[in-house]
Here is the input.
Amino acid sequence: MSKKNPNMLGNSTATRVQAGLKKRYAKERRFRFYGVLAITLSLLFLSFLFINISSKGYTAFQQTFIQIEVYLDENSIDPEGSRDSNTLSSANYGGLVKSSLRSLFPDVKKRKDKKKLYKLISSGATFQLRDMVMNDPTLIGTTTRMWVPADDDYDMLMKGHIDRTLPEDERRLKDQEVAWFDHLIENDQVKKSFNITFFTAGDSREPELAGIWGALVGSLLTLFITLIICFPLGVATAVYLEEFAPQNRWTDLIEVNINNLAAVPSIIFGLLGLAIFINVFHLPRSAPILGGLVLALMTLPTIIIASRTALKSVPPSIRQASLAIGASKMQTIMYHVLPLAMPGMLTGTIIGMAQALGETAPLLMIGMVAFIVDIPAGVTDPATVLPVQIFLWADSPERAFVEKTSAAIMVLLAFLITMNSLAIFLRKRFEKRW
Amino acid sequence: MQTTTLILLLLAFSVIAYQFGKRRSLVIVSGKVKELHSLPSYYGYLTAIWCGIPALIIFGLWSAFESTIITHLVVSHLPETLQNLSSNRLSLFINDIKNLANGGIISGEVDAVTTAAAEHYNNLRYISNAALTVFVLGIAIACAAFTAKSISKEKRARNEVEFAIKVFLIICSTIAIFTTLGIVLSVLFEAIRFFRVVPITEFLFSAEWSPQMAIREDQVGSSGAFGSIPLFTGTLLITVIAMCIAVPIGLMSALYLTEYATPKFRTVAKPLLEILAGVPTVVYGFFAALTVAPMIRDYGAFLGLDVSSESALAAGIVMGIMIIPFVSSLSDDVINAVPQSLRDGAYGMGATKSETIRKVIIPAALPGIVGGVLLAVSRAIGETMIVVMAAGLAANLTANPLETVTTVTVQIVTLLVGDQEFDSPKTMAAFALGLVLFIITLTLNFIALYIVRKYREQYD
Here is the structure.
């Protein structure tokens, strides 16, 4: 009996455990699977996002050009032969381009068809021709061949974004227009080449003439203002709070404020910029100086928090050693603590700047959504920034702007990834363990 | 003189003052540095500070008040009849004078009075500018000279310089407070003006939102209704959808990465996840509007559902994706903070890993996780670009995720982008919405931080 009982008890427990074990292991595997699933899903989202954007955008790095032959008629450009730059710049180049198109397709007679024919090439061709003549007036009177950008619809056709098999009335380009273009292709008068315009031009209503250079310069100017405001301010605040501040209500208030600011939605900073910087201080609207100011206030908490962490990680022994040989507290911080904490501060700053580079919402509030063609020359010029340019293009109805938007996003992401890798590199390079 | 030139000049003066002060301190002790109280460079810094700072302060004050004083002087020289104009008309007239003085286009006729006033204005500006230049540079030189003269062996230059630096540090640290103050003031004042026109009860409790205001008296159908309920329900709907995506995925990823994954996998997967947080929101907006929304619409049509092309679902899903890394990194921190002894105890009792996680780790980390989720919620509520690009403009009071809704941030953007006069209820409504948004997100953050902090005290 005494032997049997524990055995029986053990048996029953063992069977119960055995029976439950399978279930428990299955549960374990399921749980683990959910974890893998979650990570896979998020990575899938990430890759889907990147693949989606780049598959839409890579075609924007190429552009379709059409070769035309223009007779630079002296009578219409410069009838008096003065070669005066005013006369040259105001001549009717559009007419010359049109007549060259007419001579390409002599059988187009109807007014309506002619109008369509003129739309074969971009309106930028006129200016290209003008610049060419103004650079080299000896061309007048000769016939020159030149490559001009095709209109965005033909560019789309060339890149296969317009389906030729669709019924004619569902297509942007009618049969006749497609036939013209095919004729040009047969005669080797169409080529695709690298789209320099995209990197050198400002914004434009014509997709084939639009570029990101203006927005890029605007972004750089804005970031420059942001950096020169928020880096010194952030570091100074961190140094004060970490090294000098007494523990009292005032410093508590400052700390609570900094933490709160980090959590305020970015659009609220736009409201601040609108109400205070524009309506009270009358700073110029849409200017990088204003955008930089708003972004600086937004980035400040990030930099302060990172800088404080960096200062905290400098061991007290270094401070004590410096104090022991007679340095003042300020000298200790200036010559020993700050240099050691600087890599950490820089890393935080780069991350903050990367956030500022991608930020859009507050800039909409302060008027940086204006359509601006010119490349900004200074911090008070009206400008737009890269994310806002993306926002504006994403709103455009033309099909061709979809690829431009995606390409601009690729450029923006490339910048962000570079900045973040730089931050990681800096952290790895200067990471010290004491 | 141009502002920038003047500031550059002051900077150059300060550099010279530094050299001068340093040299003078050396001259006093005839080269024997150890007789000085401070290092020679501190005497230089002191002189430079005294050269630059007072002059800069005067320059700032002068620039701030210059325009008001000059305008006042110009007005006091105008004929009586003009001075007695109503304040609105007068400010218009002053604007004209300024425009004329700057060579711009003015609204009215260019008459003798305006021309004279413009000339007077230009004269005053010229005089003020010249006086400012002389005064500021004079102050700079005088202060620097006085400081240099006061240099002696006993002068405690280092202490004074350090005091100045400390004052600078303190001023910098107050910027955060001023920013908060600026935010509160900017939204509060406009919101109060708005609530004078539209009663606060209507704003908070009415369910109709159509912010079009009549431009002309006799215009039909544009009376304007400012009930914000549909905006808040819309925001809530999108936030709930986003949380349904972000919380399970974010939490499970964090659990897997902390409890199951090998260190090698973790070092690869974690930064990859964090890329999701670094992608600009405008990119997500584009992605939502051009890829996700049509996909959902087509899929809905395939199932026979009528899905709006600007459905709340599309915006919510993409926002959820954006927030995943936020949830996961916050829960990662709190899960890591759960002491190993708790895990070991559970394993010792024979629990499997998943049982330990569910019965021990999650309950222990729960306050932290809840805090993290609340922070994520406040981020979703304040998120702008995704909803501006992917959600609609129509204020619909609906709980159907397939319909189009609008959110608070969308309305703020649409009310304020473009040319608007700043005293119409339409623009002021945006600030009222901003105020509510600010209050909601701050409250959520306070609660979240409170929960997180309270939790932390249990194990420390």
Notes: The longest strand of chain A covers residues 62-71.
